[in-house]
Amino acid sequence: MIRESKGDRILKGFFYVLMALFGVYCLVPFLTVIGSSFGTESAILRDGYSIIPTEFSVEAYKLIFQDITIYRSYGVTLFVTIAGTLLAMVVTSALAYPLSVKTLKYRNFINFYVYFTMLFHGGLVANYLLISKYLDMKNSIWVLIIPALVSPWNMFLLRNFFKSIDESIAESAKIDGANDMYILFRIILPISLPAIATVGLFYALGFWNEWFRAMLYIDDEKLFPLQYLIMRIMNNADFANQVSAQVSLPGYVIPTITTRLATTVVTIGPIIFLYPALQKYFVKGLMVGAVKG
Amino acid sequence: MSKVISANQAAAPRQNGRLASFLLEIRKNKMLYLLTLPGILLIFVFAYLPMAGIVIAFQDFNPVKGITGSEFVGLKNFRFFVESGETLRIIANTLFLNVLFIGSGAIAGVAIAVMLSELGGRWFKRIIQTIVTLPHFLSWTVIAMLVTALLSTENGVVNKVLQGAGIEPVSFYGNPGIWPLLLVLIKLWQGAGFGSIVYLATISGINPEIYESASIDGATRWSKIRYITLPLLKPTVILMLLLAMGGIFYGDFGMIFAIIGRNPILYPTTDVIDTYVYRALMDLGDMSMAAAVGFFQSVVGCIFVITVNAIARKWAPDSALF
């Protein structure tokens, strides 16, 4: 057993310290927002944001949960995420599987057809015109779903996985008389569950975090997804005014900041809870995707 | 079966043969091609149709008249684009910020990967890894809120700490000069942990016997890192750098717009092509201009991506996309 030299131990200790510091660096913003969300507005205005609130209160949470906005946004985001992920997985798998079949004559053409869209875009103006004017999808919940149903990156990831499945399985099924659909549904998909789960998670994350399209195409408040709601309330006090409209105490400080914080916490809650469990899928997906191009 | 086909093809005129083989292939793999149809259609509508909208860049676009009704003005939009000092600035910002992000991201990613791989404690490693990769999964609007909590002039944590130490509070949102640094710090917060994963994968693939024989020869931890780990990471780093550089003409709209928003004070150092185009489209309604700038970005970006991917493919041939 080779003894570690003193220099080695010091270096290792140094690494521990640095990594711990970086961990703290990553945690502090979270803790600040979560902690401050449990404070009173007046305390924050007086003492500033902090990890441990100077005055503890769940007032902000009470207010946002009494108002319908947070439920609506949650509903929108949940629907978009669930429906979007399911549809996206169906369409993407349907596109990816044939491209993995080596005997398909035109698959390279289709490959390039998809790949080219990763190289060249029509630009924001054209997309905006297409969706708002020619497709008239403004203020529809589907504008958050349909344009994102086929992500070339995710599709190639899935295709590469299908490719890695041993051909002999499909071949022997073909010899036994199975047609393509049978092979896909009964043989390939069951084996591919990990890859499908991974790509599904990538899509789900994308849908959950979507706000740009909401910003462009949605002005109906009832259709704001969570992430866009955060952006809206960050810049004005309408939300705070609205949720605290019924409170009529003398000297009442409208909880602009705390309601924003509470909304943020409620938005990132699911991610923080689910992430440790789902982490390995994302890591695996990234490694396969990045290393294999 | 193929003998029959080629006999037919030899007999018929050229075009008929190609069409026949095309139809034959479709019929043979009918189900598979049918499966691809929804994806192909979606991509056509949302990726290829907009490409036709490029023509707006060459028009004096009037939303009411639409694409077909607007006047064609050739390169007029581009002339203004070249003459305006703003456009030089936004291109410079885009490139500069991206270079900063890519460079710092690579350094931080490698550093984190090396450090994590040297650590022993399993629990510590797992917890730290979870913590540092978590920020990657937040949307930029949420991150913008976190940044406000830290950097807000009156209430932000940073300024409160400074005040406690007797230092004057800094108006972060009023000072454009420090924002390249701030954006880098924020970007590292969000992405360095997640970005280290690829390098960790490479490191874990290194044969442990190399390290063992180095130890026997008396190598210290640091020299092992310097002469084994880092050189073996080099191909991955270069590949990642190349791939990232492909997007160098595309600014991180999500990050910059969510955090900076419509704060004109900060535009000189933070406005990038994408945010500029967005404002030209939504705030000014100047669609021709926005289309012209966007077209420039698409063309230059495309050339860049193709070039860089070609280099990357030569460098690491098994990483080609297809």
> CATH fold name of the domain at 68-238 and 277-291 in chain A, please?
MetI-like fold
Distance between the termini of chain A: 40 Å
Estimate the strand proportion of chain B. Answer: under 5%
General shape of chain B: flat
Number of strands of chain A: 0
Share in helix of chain A: over 70%
Largest interface: A-B, 108 and 107 residues
Indicate the radius of gyration of chain B in whole angstroms: 27 Å
Percentage of residues in DSSP E strands of chain A: under 5%
Verbal overview:
The complex is a heterodimer of chains A (293) and B (322). By secondary structure, chain A is mostly helical. Chain A has a domain at 68-238 and 277-291: Orthogonal Bundle (MetI-like fold). Chain A has helices at residues 6-37, 41-47, 59-66, 68-100, 107-119, 124-134, 152-164, 167-175, 180-191, 193-208, 212-217, 226-235, 238-243, 256-291. In chain A, helix 4 (68-100) crosses helix 7 and helix 12 (226-235) packs across helix 14. The model of chain A has no long low-confidence stretch (mean pLDDT 87). Chain B is mainly α. Chain B has two domains: 2-65, no CATH class; 77-319, MetI-like fold (Orthogonal Bundle). Chain B is built from 16 helices and two strands. In chain B, strands 1-2 form a two-stranded antiparallel ribbon. In chain B, helix 5 packs across helix 16 (287-315), helix 6 packs across helix 10 and helix 7 crosses helix 10 (179-204). Chain B is flat. The model of chain B has no long low-confidence stretch (mean pLDDT 85). The interface between A and B is large, with 108 and 107 residues.
Give a brief description.
The complex is a heterodimer of chains A (293) and B (322). With 293 residues, chain A is mainly α.
Give the SSE map:
The complex is a heterodimer of chains A (293) and B (322).
Chain A: H1 6-37, H2 41-47, H3 59-66, H4 68-100, H5 107-119, H6 124-134, H7 152-164, H8 167-175, H9 180-191, H10 193-208, H11 212-217, H12 226-235, H13 238-243, H14 256-291
Helix pairs in contact in A: 1-14, 3-14, 4-7, 4-10, 7-10, 8-9, 10-14, 12-14
Chain B: H1 2-11, H2 14-28, H3 30-52, E1 59-60, H4 66-69, E2 71-72, H5 76-83, H6 85-118, H7 122-133, H8 140-151, H9 157-164, H10 179-204, H11 208-216, H12 221-245, H13 253-260, H14 267-270, H15 273-282, H16 287-315
Antiparallel strand pairs in B: 1-2
Helix pairs in contact in B: 1-2, 5-16, 6-10, 6-12, 7-10, 8-13, 10-12, 12-16, 15-16
